[in-house]
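for the writeup, i need someone to sanity check this before i put it in the appendix. the sequnce is what the collaborator sent (i think, or maybe the updated version? ugh). structure was predicted straight from it, no edits. if anything looks off just tell me and ill rerun, i have time this weekend
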Amino acid sequence: MLGLGARRADVGRGNQDWVVLADPEGNEFCVLKPLDREEKP
């Protein structure tokens, strides 16, 4: 996503399991890794 124009956004959340990015217009969004098959409910 960084190659498509997103940038990392520092939202002051410390060390989390997700990354917060912002699109070129400044809209923030979270990126999480998908669950493994064993983790899915």
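The chain has a mean pLDDT of 81. The first strand starts at residue 7 and ends at 8.
thx in advance!!
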